[in-house]
Specification:
It is a single chain. With about 425 residues, this protein is α/β, with parallel strands linked by helices. It folds into three domains: about 10-130 and about 265-330, FAD/NAD(P)-binding domain (3-Layer(bba) Sandwich); about 130-265, FAD/NAD(P)-binding domain (3-Layer(bba) Sandwich), CATH 3.50.50; about 340-420, Immunoglobulin-like, CATH 2.60.40. It has nine helices and 27 strands. The protein has helices at about 20-30, 65-80, 130-135, 150-155, 175-185, 205-210, 270-275, 310-330, 400-405; strands spanning about 10-15, 35-40, 55, 65, 85, 90-95, 100-110, 110-125, 125-130, 145, 165-170, 190-195, 215-220, 220-225, 235-240, 250-255, 260, 265, 300, 340-345, 350, 355, 360-370, 375-380, 385, 395-400, 410-420. Strands 1, 2, 5, 6, 7, 8 and 19 form a seven-stranded mixed β-sheet that branches. The chain has a five-stranded parallel β-sheet with strand order 10-17-11-12-13. Strands 22-20-27-24-25 form a five-stranded mixed β-sheet, with no helix packed on it. β7 and β8 (about 110-125) form a beta hairpin. The protein is globular and about 65 Å long. The protein starts with 7 loop residues before the first strand and ends in a 10-residue tail after the last strand.
């Protein structure tokens, strides 16, 4: 489906996955009349179409859906909200005129190279998988080495098995889900090997995908060498030391014909960089205000292009907020500038957004650096919240009400994750 594409819009959303569809709906709900979604694929929905497992929608719809079911619901919402949707449309660049108008250059399958003018833009390009080259695994270069997401597409959409005896490097959620999927298709999964001392996937996926299927998870272990001429024949795995270097005198060989890589995701920010947008070196995404506006006025960002999420439900909520503020911007509404910087403190890897305003309630997304239990989140001297545990693989979500920020006298607010104080009750400070 190629859909409609005119020359002028209030809001243009780049990317038609769950983030893009959520942003478009948020823009329309805010009052923006002309909204366009651009997506380079043949059909909007993004990665959801190949995620045929359940577990989607539990937070947003309060029911369990598969990926295609979740995508279909939002695609229907997009159509019902009279959002223009142009697929097979690749955005090659964005420029900003002196009056603030954004010109989006689009290569469309039917119309060729065209320019679309818009008042505001939402960047929702998602992310891509890390490859073997990014971690430089030594060895030969045979066939049979695939990113886990590619394997998922081959199995679920194309009906191809990538191999019969499979090893998985990395314990990201896609890798865990594919371990289960391949066992169900009759493959042998020899193990999941994770270089860190903890899993990088959700706890529920460890239980449902590995434990329930007797698939071993080897922590603090990596693939040190790949063997094979035409096809992968075996891999050498080894435990790692405290510097994450393989301990080769404890290495062992494992026979397999396929190696799947589930070693992380990279936000697709080539467009952001071309605009000169300020980036966060930790997340790999843009720095954003509490309205999810980037350093470029009228350009917003949401979803995995901003930071990698655990659950699509959180992507949707965040993106609808970005869409709301982009729609307001297109209508000439200018929110007061944020006056409080949010600073990651002890055991906090990053916080999104990067700045806050006492004008409204905020939802803070963050990740910890190390697992900790029990623990507490301390937000400056404003509040503390007690948690049973935190792990790097699972997003931490914290709401901060405006009445707390009204009392804050400074211009920067630090968030720390600290060990719980025994015998102390936590609440507002």
């Amino acid at each position: 489906m190629l859909g409609r594409m005119e020359s002028k819009y209030d809001v243009v959303v780049v990317g038609g996955g769950p983030a893009g569809m959520g942003a478009a709906l948020g823009a329309r709900d805010s009052g923006a009349e002309r909204v366009l979604i651009l997506d380079r694929e043949e059909e909007a929905g993004g990665i959801l179409w190949q995620c045929i497992h359940s577990g989607f929608g539990l937070h947003y719809f309060r029911e369990e859906l598969t990926g295609p079911e979740y995508a279909q619901r939002f695609l229907e919402k997009v159509i019902d909200h009279d959002v223009d949707l142009a697929t097979s449309s690749y955005v090659s660049g964005i420029s900003v005129d002196s009056d603030g108008t954004k010109s989006v250059r689009v290569m469309n399958e039917q119309k060729g190279l065209v320019t679309v003018n818009t008042k505001s833009v939402v960047l929702s390009m998602g992310c891509r998988e890390r490859t073997r080259g990014s971690i430089r695994i030594p060895g030969t270069r045979p066939s049979g080495i695939l990113a886990a997401g590619l394997a998922q597409k081959l199995v679920n959409l194309n009906g191809y098995l990538p191999g019969k005896r499979v090893a998985i490097l990395g314990s990201g959620d896609i890798g865990l889900i594919m371990a289960r999927r391949l066992v169900l298709e009759g493959c042998e999964v020899v193990g999941v090997f994770e270089i860190m001392p903890y899993s990088n996937g959700l706890s529920r996926n460890i239980v449902q995908c590995l434990d329930d299927f007797d698939i071993p998870l080897h922590l603090s272990t990596t693939v040190a060498y790949i063997h094979g001429r035409d096809r992968v024949e075996k891999i050498t795995v080894a435990p790692v030391d405290k510097y994450l270097k393989p301990v080769m005198d404890q290495a062992r060989d494992i026979t397999c014909d396929t190696l799947l890589l589930s070693i992380g995701l990279i936000p697709e920010n080539e467009l952001s960089l071309s605009l000169g947008i300020q980036m966060d070196v930790i997340t790999g995404g843009p720095r954003v205000s509490s309205t999810l506006e980037t350093s470029m006025p009228g350009v917003f960002a949401s979803g995995n292009v901003l930071h990698v999420h655990d659950l699509v439900d959180f992507v949707t909520r965040e993106s609808m907020l970005a869409g709301q503020f982009s729609g307001e911007w297109a209508q000439g509404v200018r929110r007061p500038e944020d006056n409080i910087r949010l600073l990651p403190g002890d055991n906090v890897r990053y916080c999104i957004p990067h700045t806050l305003s006492p004008e409204r309630e905020h939802t803070i997304y963050m990740r910890c650096k190390e697992a900790m239990k029990p623990c507490r989140i301390r937000v400056g001297n404003l509040m503390e919240k007690k948690l049973r545990f935190v792990v790097p693989a699972e997003m931490i979500i914290l709401k901060i009400k405006p009445d707390l920020l009204d009392k804050f006298p400074g211009d920067s607010l630090r968030i720390d994750i600290l060990p719980a104080e025994k015998g102390k009750r936590h609440g507002k400070g």
